[in-house]
Amino acid sequence: MKDKTFLMIPGPTPVPERVLLEIAKHPMGHRSSEFSKILESVYSDLKYVFQTSNDVIVYTSSGTGAMDAALSNLINEGDKVLCLAIGNFGQRWAKIAEGLGAQVEKIEVEAGKAINPDELKAVLAKDVNKEIKLVTLTQNETSTGVTNDVKTLVSIIKEHGALSVVDGVTSIGAMDCKMDEWGIDVLVSGSQKGFMIPPGLAFLAASEKAWAVHKECKRPDFYFNWTTNRKSVLENSTAFTPAVNLISGLKVALEMMKEEGLENIIARHTKLAKGLRAALKAMGLTLFVEDEAIASTSITAVLPPEGISVPDIRKIMKNDYDIVVANGQNKLKDKIFRMGTLGFVSERDVITAVGALEATLYKLGHKFELGAGVATLIKYMNK
Amino acid sequence: MKDKTFLMIPGPTPVPERVLLEIAKHPMGHRSSEFSKILESVYSDLKYVFQTSNDVIVYTSSGTGAMDAALSNLINEGDKVLCLAIGNFGQRWAKIAEGLGAQVEKIEVEAGKAINPDELKAVLAKDVNKEIKLVTLTQNETSTGVTNDVKTLVSIIKEHGALSVVDGVTSIGAMDCKMDEWGIDVLVSGSQKGFMIPPGLAFLAASEKAWAVHKECKRPDFYFNWTTNRKSVLENSTAFTPAVNLISGLKVALEMMKEEGLENIIARHTKLAKGLRAALKAMGLTLFVEDEAIASTSITAVLPPEGISVPDIRKIMKNDYDIVVANGQNKLKDKIFRMGTLGFVSERDVITAVGALEATLYKLGHKFELGAGVATLIKYMNK
User: Fold this and answer.
1) What is the ipTM, given to two decimal places?
2) pTM, full prediction
3) How many CB atoms lie within 10 A of CB A294?
């Protein structure tokens, strides 16, 4: 049987039917009053999800585009930048900064760990002349399923005086991120994650402090230029022709998010991920991130049982049950697999995934109490 | 009656139903083998439409993103650049180049005119030390409906030795543009034009000569970086998460284009635009571009009759006939209106548009022989 694929990867994530149907409509003129009304609604609702009063720019690009947009509007050649890298996406910040000619310093940790706030404090304390202009960090590291304590890290950065630039690609709309209350200076996200729409849009918001630094940026990128893009946001327009169909879909998705309520969405993600973790352990599997305090609530990385390979697990999950789970990236390829509980995912979906994974491991000869995963999950969800 | 809108603007353009239905499907994983097959087909078919053997990079961005990608991968601070600007989109090349720190020289013409090859020859002849690194030009200037003679202009640039960088956003897939045969070094286009899909994708191809210049570029933009993006093209992949739904739609649209055949597509555009022009003249209207040799076959700009305003024409066309035509841009706002015959447009569509425009002008009190537009169009199409 075909066409029943269920994506349990960190993105793209499942898209609600009413969003898909909206996307399927004939495109509108991007300078029409009808489309301007859609943008007005989208710009307003994005502030709600970003928990900010700052304007949120919508770029037609992948999430990496918004990361590029963040740094290419702030960094001048020779600037000092500190990158907190706990995985591939943290390293991406460093690569972008280096490409812009910044002097990059990094705090790196072993895969599966989060940034230790004391280490950040110590590094920033050494910067007595306040030369570090900005610090990049990742709320949820997609490659490992680790969540940094953004609130604490940002407060330390704030005390130093540098700008905090946060990757919220797989966290916004899934876990709590209070841009204004926590004092985040630049926050970016992408559409195919917590926002429940297909890939193609990315979002960026900046604090007044960040805007002041942007004003001193000598060569902001033309397409991603904050100034020209914000000017259009204030006119309920876009600087260049946007992906109008995706934006119409986004309007519907944001309405669904408001209907459910951000707090409920965050609680749902937490519950589903914790239930999944309990189920996986009950099946005799080892979680890549054991520490509950830093375990992601949108992506869970798992080690395969001894003697069973990640490709075999992914293959049976895909071929027999039409469920796509992600492999590890780079050095973690074939060492872990990753399951997303991100975006449009319900309790039923997690029961489905755990059931299918039990069947997969059973076929592959893994020795465990068949049914224990589903049983543990159901108990967790109803306790 | 609602939901019967017909876009006759220079983009977004109408999208075939089978493309819309493809876009409405649940997103695929962008690293799956299924999606890789779609990319393989898309990358191959794009070469056909670009008439090139060079790799064609697909960016998730607007067409302006690809223009940014062209220059930010070639220009170093202080480089000399010559921009041939016959309208707003020609000026955009100059703005991007200036933002990158280039020394920009321009050849500008009055709105409605094309670049005179002799003037280009004269300007380049003065550059005896061959300091001009690249020349930007526009095949079809969307703001005025003027087409430059790219073949001749590129041959002059080639003789000088500079790179030719061509905006083919509203020309590729509508008018002839032989990238390899004419020796174009960089060619860009966008999805919501000749390619018959909604906005959100942009395309770029570069000659070997351009790739060599790229290698010397000190600060290529991270997101738009040619090297990393082409590496992924060669692996039937993308560097970052692309707009997968739009790419699936593009695959279908490209198949439709191959089915019709590029020569037939170009002939259709020519015939429809020339028929439209004849009809407009028969209705007593003045064309903004009188000279048939430089008149665009994808966008036709028209002056309103004396005493009748552009906003009134656009309003009645929209409210009573659900047809969207574009206003002029900047200085030409309310001075001209623009009708697209671009992409998924048939003879029937042009009959529809001419009929509705006759009705609109009739309501607005324009004195002309009612029916003359449609009659002239039908005769033109059947001569």
Assistant:
1) 0.96
2) 0.97
3) 19
